[in-house]
Amino acid sequence: MSKPQVTRRQFVRDSAGVAAAAAAGATVAGMGAEASGAPDATKTRSYNENMEYRRLGRTNLMISAVSIGGHWKKIPHGYRTPDFKKNRREVLAACMDHGINYIDACWDSEVITYGEAIQGRRDDLFFGLSFGAHESRFPDWARSVKTMKEGFEMGLKAGGLDHVDLWRITMHEQTSARNTPQEIEIAIEVLDWAKKTGKARFTGVSSHDRPWITEAVARYPQLEVIVTPYTAKTKAKPEGSMFDALKKHDVGMIGIKPFASGAVFKSQGQPDSETKQEDDEIARMVLRYVLCCDVLTAAIPGLITIDQVKNAAAAVKQPREFTEAEAARYEELTKDMWDRLPRDYGWLRDWEWV
What is the pLDDT of residues 41-60, one digit of tens each? Predict the structure, then answer.
């Protein structure tokens, strides 16, 4: 099936329309709960008047529209070295100082790293956890309620945590094809257990399987949050969009890969390249674009320097609506992004129409 073609005129028109909707309803920082239909954002963790906060579906958590993903590609320090640990502590501190209040740690090394980095400020940040090497991607863990519970509790211990704000199990990307029905049911059962025991305040999964997500959020109330891609090029399909199901069932959405693994940048995401000034501008444009989606609660780029944190926070304050010149430039940037995608990220092209 051929994809619909979007002209520059349509692109400008659509980005303007989405931005207007975002300005009308998505920004809740500075608005009272009564006016926005959401909890009072000023009461959330690490509140900053210059940050935007969005309601994470029916969890009613108010999290920063730009948050931080757990990956740390391009950090010029070896894992667990003193310089590496110092970098992660300082970047997280800068995040909280700028009102960024959600960290998504999706693998074992990330849970360990960020659990250490937030010592002393645990209550200033919402912590999303997946102890991914001990979850549904691996049969030795996935095929038993007992082992899945054990893996989760190992994750809590490794991170020095007594509970998490969100346990979002990392399923296979193509969940319906690579996780068995039994593995899916086991994942749902242990999510239910974790919430009932208070070990996880809220629960969900990470999946890239849009048809499965659409059906699963209707079937399983345990799926309060979905973690899934939302790139610099993503748009809602005119009919049958996954976003419709998330809205209908009031499910929070956290968007990964906004920068397409760095492919949107001239430098491929190197933090101190010769194109840093232009890359920073591109990053702000991408965040302005993705935040026009009123289904997206938060985008979670991997932020590896304090400058990147400041730049991401600055994007929140900029107008969402592109000028005609910006829209034309953005169209070229995202075309180049697809051309620069690493081979192992080619699947992101399937996230243009969602």
Answer: 999 999 999 999 999 999 99
